[in-house]
Structure formats: C-alpha cells, structure tokens
Amino acid sequence: MMPRGLTRCKGIMPTILGLTIGLALSFLRAPVIEPDECRIYETSLDSANEALALDNSVPAFPASDEEEDFEPQIIVDPKLKPKVDLEANKKKVVRSRYISTELGIRERLVSSMITSKDTVSSLAIAQNKTLGHHMQKLLFFFGSHEQPFKGKNHQPAGMNIVVHPEEDEIRILYQTLYYLYQHYNEVYDWFFVGYDNSYVAGYRVNEIVNHMSITRKLYLGLPARIHDEKIDGYYCKQSAGFIMSRALMMAVMPEMNKCLSGIQADSPDEWLGRCLLTLTKGEVGCVNTEEVQTYESINLENDQQFDVETASSKLFEKAVSAFPVATTTEVYKLHKRFSEVEIDMTYRKIEFLQEEIKNLSAKTPQGEDGLSWPIGVNPPFQPSNRWEVINWDYFDSTHTLTCPGEIPKCELSDMEKKDVHDIVATAVSRLQEKYKPQNMEIDLIKLENGYKRFDPQRGMEYMLDLKLRVTVDSGQTELSHRVDLLRPLSQVEIIPMPYVTETTKINMILPVSVDEAEALKVFLDKFEKKVLMSKDKDSILLTIIFIYGAAEAEKVHQKDDPFTVQKERLGALEVKYGSQENRPKVIPWMSIKTDIPSQLRILDVIVRTKKFTADSLFFLASPHADVNNDLFDRCRMNAIAGWQAYFPVPFTQFNKEIAPDVKEEIEIKGSTGHFDIYSFDETCFFNSDYMAARSKFAQKSQKNQDLIDNIDLYELFMENSELHVFRAVEPALKRRWMLRQCSVKRGDGAVDRCERSNAEGLGTRTQLAMKLFPDET
C-alpha cells in the first residue's frame, strides 16, 4: 500500500518530471564559450571624441547598481536626468524641387561652341540660329584679355556667352572643359564641344547620345592619328566637333591641369587627345563608332569643287558636321541641305512604318477595315451623346458661316484667309504630284465649298470641293473634285511663361459717368465689404474717375453736382478707414471733362499724373460689376508684363423687366444672364505695356488726333503691340444689367459691339417672346 504522502503528490509528479527534463535538455544545448573566444568590439568613435563623451557624461544610478538586478527608480533631481535632444527628430527634411534631382536623373546633353572675338558677331550667330533650337543648352566660349563688349560692340542677343581671360587656344579649350565640368557635371550626361568654323547637325548629335549608355568613358569624334613614339593613339579633330561622356569628365578633369605644363602639342585637339591618353593610361582615345552609332563628318577642304546643293544626299544622311566654313552664307546653305535630307529621311520612315502597320492590321480582329486614315494617325473622335458631336464649319475663299452671335455670314480674318490659301495650295500640289505620271496637268479654277472641324484626337480636318481644269493630250475638261486633308497634331510643347505671383498690388481704375452715379453706390457698398474690411485692403488701390460732360462740368463743387452723394460717401469712408497720418487717401478720386469718355483718354489722364510706376498693374473696372478676391487673383495671374493682357468675359444679368428670375444677388444661370462676349470694359494690364502701345499708336495718329476716340483698349493692344491678348470666360466677374450709350463718334467696331451687347443683354429668346406676346402662352 502506497504511503499517504506519495498519494497526495501523485497529481503533480508529471509536472515536476517535465520541468526537470526540460532544464536538463536546455543545459545540454547551451553553447560552451571558452575565455579565449571572447571579443571586445569597440565603437567607431576616435579616442578624443570617446574621452570627451565619457568626461561629460553623468551617471543616472549608483555604480553599485550595475551588479544588482535592475529596478526602476524615479529621478527627482533634474541634474541627474538623462539629456535628450527633443528636436533631433523634428528637423525638417529638405526635399528636392524636382523628383529627377532626388532620383539622380540628369538631362541628356549640353553643347558648347568655341568662337573668337572676331567671329562672335557673325559665325557664332549663324551657329546659334541653326543649332540652338536643337539643343537643350548651348553655350559660346572665347578668350579675350579685354572686355569684348563695350562701346558699339554689343553682345549678341539671345546667346549665352562665356569669356575666358586666356587667348591661347589650348588654354581656351581647357577652360571651356573645366567650365562645363564645374557647372554642369551634375546636370548633364553628355558634353558636346565644337568650333564655329564648322556646321553641326544638331538632330544627329541628339540621335547619337540618345542611343548610348551613359556609363562608358567615351571620347567620340573624327579620329586622327598621333604620330609619336611615346604615345600611340588617336585624337578627335576639333573642326569636326567631339562628344565626351560625363564618366570620362569625372575621371580626367581633376587632373587635367597637369597637362597644361606637361604636354606639348601643336593644336588644341591634339593636346586634348594626348592628355586623355596619358590620364587614362592609354585606355580612352578618340573613336568614331560606339554601340552602332557612327560619328561622321564632311571635310570640305579635301574637295574644292564641292557643291552643297548638287552633292549626293547619302553624304549628308549620317554626317554629324561639315568643316571648314568661312562665311555665314555657307552655314545657312549647309543647314538648308541637311534639313532637306532630314525631311526626306523622315518621310521614308513614315512610309516604312505605315507599311508595317498595314501588314500587321491583317492579324487584328478588325482586319484592314480597322485602319484609320491617314495610317498611323488616331481614328476620329466618337461622340457618346449628341452634345459631344463635333460640327463642321463651312467656308469659302472669302467668307464663313461660323460667326459670333447671330450673324449668318462674316468675312474671314487675315489668318483664316492664309490658312485657306495654304490648305488649297497643298491639295492642288498633291493632286498634281499624283496625276503627273499619267500626263495630266491639273489647274485650280476656284474653291467651291470648304468644311473644317477640329478633332481633339487627330487635329484639324478639311473637306474641300475644288473646281479643277484637267489638261490631257486629247484636250481640256473641267470637273469638281472633293479632297480630304488632315493637319495632324504635332508634338505637344510647353510654352515658357514668366513667373507671376498672387501678391502683386492692383491699381483699380473705375471710370464713372453721370448715368452710372447710382450704380456707384452699390459698388462702394460691395467694395467696402470685400476689400476695405478685409486683411488684403492694402493690396488693392481704387481710384475713381468722375466723368463730366460739357453741361455737367459747370456744376462741379456746387450743390447740384451730380456726384455730390458719391463724394460724401467717399468722405465717410475716408473718415472710417483713413485714420493714419501722412497716408494716401483710402479711395482717391479725380474729375475729368470729356464728351466722349473713351478708355484711352481716361488712361492718358491717369498716366500723366505720374502717381503710378511703369510696373504698376492696372485693373480697369466698371461700377456695375461685383468684385471679389477670386477676380483679383485671376487678374494678377493672367496679366503678365511684356507678355500678356487679360480681357475677362463677364457674366451679365438680363434686364429685370424682361427676365423675372433676376435677383439682387447675381446667380450664374441661363435664365438670369449670359456671358457678354461683346463687353471689353474690364481688363487687366501693366502700365509699361500700355505706354508702349500708346506710343506706337501716337506715331500713327499724328495727323489725325481724333483717332483716339475711334479705338478702345482691346484694339490698341491687338494692333499696336506684340502682347498676347488673353480672352476667357470669367465666372468670378459678375455684372448687373446696364443700357450702354453707343455714341456714333466711336469707331465702327466699338459701336457694333456696343449695340450687340445691348441687344443680347435684354433676355433669352423665350423671355423676349413672352414679353412681346403675353397672350400667346
């Protein structure tokens, strides 16, 4: 019989046995470390820094605690607390402006041309005109001990010129390479260096660098042998130009200055070749072939009878450059020939690709029926509903049926006439080219009908009905023939625009006639709430121009002054918001007398006051308009000095007596108003642009001063400046209905726009019909 004690322990025996076995197994599996196998790993701090860290450290616990089990303790003394840099993890991370910079992606090619002070105003300009539009960056270098551009010798416009203080040709080449390395080593992968006594086909240089790896140490050009017992290799002829990779520049430029004194050569190109072979220990010399790309050049010096116009086109197809050239005429002739060869090659490539597309179309589900015309161009846009249907515009050689407003027929503009002439000439030329092998002569009699539309997927499409005279061996005949043409969309380019901000101060000019006195009351109430009571009141300066006629001018400063109430209101605003001393008036105003309140006469008065600088931004407004911050910001962003003037299209309310839905607050609805495309009252422009256009117009109107009343600001900028006149619908510009005074003394264009604005601003056709025939509902 088992003892009672063992019976009680019988339940926990398996547990005790399991713990015992587990401990035994863990001791058996534990690694045995000998004393000789221990290692002490030191930190990477040097001894001085380590000693400094130990001296400045403060123990948080007694030394005796290191041998005992760790127990958390509360440190009351602030001097004993560990010092923690709370700002260490709060430092702002500076990101690159462009993702390409952060990823290390560089631009492809920077080009340089070495010229001289004698040819910088001739050959260098020709190089800039023929090469500049092909290159991402083009620089010109030459050496001079003196200032080259002084007196009558002006620096050529539009050229980036760097002048070295050296006149030795070898040192000029070295300084050029060093400048490129110092300024563009981290920006570009390839460097092209040429001389202005040669012609360079820019498209061929781009084609070469676009198909090569950037990791190679490459020195590419037209090789010439170095005749030397010590050095065996090739250098690139300077007249043909050469290409260097960034990898090679990084390898040799830090040591290249040693070549100036250590290497003697007769020419800069040979010096560079010897230097590169020396610094790379013979690994890198000039080559003319790399990764199937070949650098070829035409040596015009070898053939004195060489004629650019009659030479074989195969000679120009793979050539990168041609040398030497002595005059700008030779440069332009070579450019013309190279461009013709490039166009022919492009057409052949297009034909080849079209044939490939045609052959592959048979393997598609739709077959050849799925091919669009022309082959390789996107198919026509397919509308999903009737609102997306693109209409065709009818035209002939002089007029069109697509006119603004409700005009049924209007004359083509000069640009439209030129477009029609070009497209008709192209159609006749293609027909003559097609039927000439059949001994058929085709002559144009006239354009019977024309249709065009802009397809966003394809470009501008044309359908022309041409009346032609066809001459064959048996006689002549006249027939009508329809042709389809397409002006396809080309490569999309970003147009560079000057930088503008939303912090520019706006000088608002508000002309007010006697008929608009009541509208000024509402305008001032709105202006006080939107501007004077806001934090941006200092960025908007309003100047009011009170316009008096001949009869009203006699009442100025009298009790029956038509603007008495308005001037009192301005005085109240001055008392309320003009508390600071020596501060300009909150809303300055002036009075002028004129029977014809034209925009130009009003602005002339403003300019003569000389209170506004040339860089002042003007906003010519109307008292019937509601102003707001969105409108001001659009004015700042769309008016660019020396570049663009902004003429917003306002949303104008209909006449309240005709449109019953019109309310006090202007709402953009089809039943309450419309965008008045005939209104040019509001505009944003810079004072300098106005003065330049006004001076040009003054030269034209010296004999007839009355012309100033026949032109408005829109016509002034269109006819007397190079500004881009930006015209766009502006939902932030809302205006109340007004009946314009269309003076016959104004120009025909201004009177016509005034009358059409009055006619279309009354109401919708339905509202007008309801007003005319109230009993017909």
UniProtKB/TrEMBL annotation:
GO cellular component assignments: Golgi cisterna membrane
Listed InterPro entries: Chond_GalNAc (IPR008428), CS_glycosyltransferase (IPR051227)
Taxonomic superkingdom: Eukaryota
Principal location class: Golgi
Molecular-function GO terms, alphabetical: glucuronosyl-N-acetylgalactosaminyl-proteoglycan 4-beta-N-acetylgalactosaminyltransferase activity
Signal peptide: 1-35
Keywords linked to the UniProt accession: Golgi apparatus, Membrane, Signal, Signal-anchor, Transferase, Transmembrane, Transmembrane helix
UniProt topology in membrane: Single-pass type II membrane protein
EC number in record: 2.4.1.-
Keyword Transmembrane helix appears in the UniProt entry: yes
EC top class named in words: transferase
Compartments where found: Golgi apparatus, Golgi stack membrane
Short name of any one Pfam family annotated for the protein: CHGN
Family per similarity comment: Belongs to the chondroitin N-acetylgalactosaminyltransferase family.
Protein's name according to its UniProt entry: Hexosyltransferase
